[in-house]
Write a structure and sequence with these properties.
The complex is a heterodimer. Chain A is mainly alpha-helical. Chain A is built from 14 helices and 4 strands. In chain A, the strands form 2 sheets. A two-stranded antiparallel ribbon of chain A has the order 1-4. A two-stranded antiparallel ribbon of chain A has the order 2-3. In chain A, α4 runs parallel beside α6. By secondary structure, chain B is an alpha/beta fold. Chain B folds into 2 domains: 143 residues, 3-Layer(aba) Sandwich (Rossmann fold); 190 residues, 3-Layer(aba) Sandwich (Rossmann fold). The chains are: A mainly alpha, B alpha/beta. Chains A and B meet through α1, α2, α3 and α12 of A and α1, α2, β2 and α5 of B.
C-alpha cells in the first residue's frame, strides 16, 4: 500500500534537483499539449520568456505585474507565520481600492501633494480593518478565519461592483458603468518608467524582513505560529500578536490595491483585483514566506503572467490555452513542494519508522 | 540552506536575463521604427491628410483589440470576420481577445504596437479612454475606436449604423407579435444600445402602433447565463418576440424553447440556430468597413476629422439578414419599402414628432435628430418599457 511519509530532511542538492525536475516535467507535459494543438513547444517557451523580459518595455510590464503580488505576498507571509490563514487578500485589496477612491471622492484635489500619502493611509486602514474582523472572530468566537476571509472576498468584490454600477457611477460616462478617473494629484509618479510602487515594494521587503527576523513582534509571531500554547505559556499577549499580524497583512494588501488603482488603473473597477489576491497566496507559499525569496518568486510569477499574455498575440494561442499553460507550470512547481516535504513509500509503517530518526504521524 | 537557495535562484534569474539580452536588439530597432522612425524616412513617402504616413500593404500591421472571446457568433465575431478579410488581402494582423475595459486595454494596445502594429482597431465602448491615452503616446500610429465619441488627429471613431437595420427588424417583429409585447435584451444603457431599442420600437410601431418593447439590461458584454435569464423573464411577462443585442444567441434560444419568435442582432447565421423562432436579424458586415478604411490608409486619404465614420445600410456595413419563413405575410414588402426609403433618404426614422416614454416631446414636428444628438441619446421613445440607466 502507498503511504505518504514526512521527510526527515533534504539536502540542498536534492531539493534543487527536485525543483528543476518539476519545472522540466511541467514543460514536457505542456509541450505534449502544445504538440497536440500543433504548436512548436520550444518556440512557445522561448516566446514566453522573450515576451516577459525581451525588451525594456516588457520588463517594465513584468514589473508592473510583480508589484501587487510582492506587496500582498509580504502581507500574507506575516499572517501565515502567525498561523492566521488569511485567504482574503483579494477582498483586502479591494477594500484598499475602495478606501483610496473614497478619499478622492471626499477631498478631490484639495489635499494637493498630500493626496497620495493620505490615500495610502485610507487604503491601509480599510484593508487592515477588513482583515481584523476575521481575526476578531477567530480569537473570541473560534470561527475559522479561512472561511471568513474567503467569504469576505465576495462581499468586498460585490461592494466594488455596486459602487461602480450605482452609487459612484460617473454621470458623464454616457450611461457606461465607470467611476470617474482619479485627478492627476492622485496618480503615482513614475521612476525609470515604472510607477513608484516598485520603490514602495522594495522598502516593504526590507521592513517586513526586519519585522519578521529582527524584531520582538516578529519573534512572537513565529513562536505563536509554531505553537499557540507555548506563546501563551511564555506570557505573550497572543491577542495583540494575532491582531497585529492581521492588521499588517490586511493593511499591506489594501496598500497593494491603492498602488494598483493609482499607478495602473487610474480609477476603481470590479476587474481591478482580477484574482491577484489568490495568486499572491501561491507566491507567498512558493517563496516559503520569506521576504527576500518573495522578490524572486513574485518576479518569476510575473514572467509567467506577462509571457502568457505575449504568446496570445505573437503565437495566436488563445487566452484559454495560455492560462492552461500557466496552470500546468504552477501545478508542477507546487507539487514539487509537496515532495520536498513528504515522500511516497510502499513500505509498511514499522519499516518507515525504523529507518528514520523522527517519525511524525 | 534557504539563503543558498535564494542565491542560486537569483543567479539563475540573472543568467536568464543576460541570456535574453542579445535577443533585444532586433526588437528595439523594430520598435524605433514604429515610434520615431516615420519622421526620418525618405521624402518620397506619402502622407495622409492627417499627416500620418501612408503605409503600403507590406508595411501594414493591423492590431485588433477584442473585449470578449471571438467565439462563433456575436459582436466580436463579426469584427473578427473583418480582420480575416484583411488577412485575405495579404495584410498582416494581430489580435488580443478577452481584453477587459480597464487599463488592460492600454497595455494591450502598447503590446500590439511593440510587436510592430501601426494600425489599431479597438472595438468596445469602454476601450475608448484607454485608446485615447495610448494615441497620445504614439502619434504616428493609426488608432480607430468603434462606437465611441473621442477623436484625435490619429484616432478616429467608427461604427455601423446598426439602428437602421434594427428599425427593419422591428417592422418584422411588429407584424409578427400577437400579444403586442416585444422584449429586448441588451447590455449597457449607453447611447449605442438606446438608439437600437428606440429604432426597433419605432419600426415595430410603424406597422403596429400599440406594440410595446420592454428592455432588460445585462450589464455585461458577454454573460451567456444572464442573457438567457433576461429573455426568460421577458417571455414570462407575456412577450412573444425577443430581440437581442448581445454576444450570444441565448436570448433567441430562450424564445425558441417557449415557442416564441426572435430577431437577431450583430452576427449572421441565426436561422440555423433557432430555425422555428427566427424572424430576421440586424447584422454587421464590418469586413466592408475595414477593407475601405485600410484602403484609405494606403491611399493617404485617411482622416479622423471629417466627422464620425458612421456607415449604414447604404454602404453595406449593416444589413438585414433575409426574411425567414416564420415572418408574417407581407413582411418582406414592408421591410423592403422601408429599406429603400432609408437608403434614398425619403425615410428618416428620427423625424419628429417624437415623444419619450414619459410623454415629453423630444423632437418637434418637422425636426430630426443630428448625429451629435444621437451620439448622446439618453431617452427612450414612446412605447419602450424601461429606463435608461
Amino acid at each position: 500500500m502507498l503511504r505518504v511519509v514526512r521527510r526527515a530532511s533534504m539536502s540542498l542538492g536534492k531539493r534543487a534537483f527536485l525543483r528543476i525536475a518539476s519545472i522540466l516535467f511541467a514543460l514536457l507535459l505542456t509541450g505534449f499539449i502544445l504538440s497536440i494543438l500543433k504548436y512548436n513547444s520550444l518556440q512557445v517557451y522561448g516566446e514566453m520568456v522573450f515576451g516577459a523580459v525581451g525588451s525594456s518595455y516588457r520588463i517594465q510590464e513584468t514589473i508592473n505585474k510583480m508589484i501587487p503580488l510582492l506587496i500582498m505576498g509580504l502581507g500574507l507571509s506575516v499572517c501565515y507565520r502567525a498561523q492566521f490563514m488569511n485567504i482574503g487578500a483579494e477582498g483586502q485589496f479591494c477594500m484598499g481600492v475602495i478606501g483610496a477612491t473614497y478619499l478622492i471622492r471626499l477631498s478631490g484635489t484639495s489635499l494637493g501633494a498630500m493626496t497620495i500619502p493620505v490615500m495610502m493611509l485610507f487604503a491601509v486602514v480599510f484593508g487592515g480593518l477588513w482583515c481584523l474582523l476575521p481575526a476578531f472572530l477567530k480569537r473570541f468566537y473560534g470561527v475559522s478565519e479561512t472561511l471568513v476571509t474567503l467569504m469576505m472576498n465576495y462581499i468586498a468584490l460585490k461592494l466594488v461592483s455596486y459602487l461602480q454600477y450605482s452609487a459612484w457611477k460617473d454621470p458623464k460616462a454616457y450611461g457606461f458603468p465607470k467611476i470617474a478617473n482619479y485627478p492627476d494629484e492622485a496618480l503615482l509618479p513614475k521612476v525609470f518608467g515604472i510607477h513608484i510602487g516598485w520603490i514602495i515594494a522594495i522598502s516593504f521587503v526590507i521592513i517586513i524582513y526586519i519585522l519578521l527576523f529582527r524584531s520582538k513582534l516578529g519573534y512572537e509571531i513565529s513562536v505563536m505560529g509554531d505553537n499557540f500554547e507555548t506563546a501563551r505559556y511564555a506570557g505573550m499577549k497572543t491577542t495583540k500578536i494575532l491582531f497585529s499580524a492581521a492588521l499588517i497583512g490586511g493593511g499591506l494588501c489594501g496598500l497593494a490595491g491603492m498602488i494598483q488603482a493609482s499607478g495602473i488603473e487610474k480609477t476603481m473597477n470590479d476587474q481591478i483585483s482580477s484574482g491577484m489576491g489568490y495568486t499572491a497566496i501561491i507566491v507567498a507559499y512558493m517563496s516559503r514566506l520569506n521576504p527576500l525569496a518573495l522578490m524572486v518568486g513574485s518576479f518569476l510569477f510575473a514572467v509567467l503572467l506577462q509571457g502568457g499574455e505575449y504568446i496570445q498575440s505573437s503565437m495566436r494561442i488563445s487566452s484559454d490555452i495560455a492560462e492552461i499553460l500557466q496552470g500546468m507550470i504552477l501545478l508542477s512547481i507546487l507539487s514539487s513542494e509537496f515532495f520536498t516535504e513528504y515522500r511516497v513509500s510502499t513500505r509498511k509503517k514499522a519499516d518507515i519508522c525504523s529507518s528514520h530518526k523522527t517519525c511524525s504521524y | 540552506m534557504k539563503r543558498i537557495l535564494i542565491i542560486v535562484m537569483v543567479t539563475l534569474l540573472m543568467v536568464s536575463l543576460m541570456a535574453c539580452a542579445p535577443v533585444e536588439k532586433p526588437e528595439t530597432s523594430n520598435t524605433s521604427n514604429t515610434e520615431s522612425g516615420d519622421t526620418k524616412t525618405d521624402s518620397n513617402d506619402k502622407k495622409t491628410v492627417s499627416g500620418l504616413k501612408a503605409f503600403t500593404k507590406d508595411e501594414l500591421k493591423v492590431g485588433f483589440i477584442y473585449s470578449s472571446p471571438i467565439g462563433s457568433e456575436g459582436y466580436i465575431y463579426v469584427h473578427n470576420l473583418g480582420r480575416l478579410a484583411l488577412e485575405e488581402m495579404g495584410i498582416k494582423t494581430l489580435y488580443l481577445e478577452n481584453i477587459p475595459e480597464t487599463s488592460e486595454c492600454e497595455k494591450a494596445a502598447r503590446d500590439l504596437i511593440q510587436q510592430g502594429c501601426n494600425v489599431i482597431y479597438a472595438v468596445s465602448f469602454g476601450h475608448m479612454e484607454y485608446i485615447a491615452n495610448v494615441a497620445d503616446e504614439y502619434p504616428d500610429v493609426y488608432f480607430n475606436h468603434c462606437t465611441g465619441y473621442i477623436t484625435k488627429n490619429n484616432m478616429s471613431t467608427y461604427m455601423g449604423k446598426i439602428y437602421q437595420a434594427q428599425y427593419l427588424a422591428g417592422i418584422a417583429a411588429g407584424m409578427r407579435t400577437a400579444t403586442g409585447k416585444i422584449g429586448f435584451v441588451t447590455t449597457f444603457p449607453i447611447p449605442e444600445c438606446v438608439r437600437q431599442v428606440n429604432a426597433y420600437t419605432l419600426g415595430a410601431r410603424s406597422v403596429n402602433p400599440t406594440a410595446t418593447v420592454e428592455v432588460k439590461w445585462t450589464s455585461s458584454w458577454y454573460d451567456p447565463a444572464t442573457e438567457k435569464t433576461a429573455a426568460t423573464e421577458l417571455l414570462n411577462g407575456g412577450c412573444d418576440v425577443i430581440a437581442a443585442y448581445c454576444d450570444t444567441m441565448n436570448p433567441q434560444m430562450a424564445a425558441a424553447e417557449r415557442g416564441a419568435w426572435a430577431t437577431g442582432g450583430t452576427s449572421p447565421g441565426g436561422e440555423a440556430v433557432v430555425p422555428n423562432a427566427f424572424l430576421t436579424s440586424a447584422i454587421f458586415d464590418y469586413a466592408t468597413f475595414y477593407k475601405q478604411d485600410i484602403q484609405e490608409i494606403m491611399d493617404g486619404t485617411w482622416s479622423s476629422t471629417g466627422g464620425f465614420k458612421w456607415r449604414g445600410l447604404d454602404e453595406h456595413v449593416v444589413k438585414l439578414e433575409g426574411i425567414s419563413k416564420n415572418c408574417a405575410p407581407g413582411t418582406k414588402e414592408a421591410v423592403d419599402a422601408a429599406e429603400k426609403g432609408i437608403i434614398d433618404g425619403s425615410l428618416d426614422i428620427w423625424k419628429g414628432e417624437l415623444k419619450d416614454n414619459t410623454g415629453v416631446v423630444k423632437v418637434k414636428s418637422g425636426e430630426t435628430l443630428t448625429d451629435e444628438q444621437l451620439l448622446a441619446l439618453d431617452w427612450f421613445v414612446e412605447g419602450v418599457i424601461g429606463k435608461v440607466g
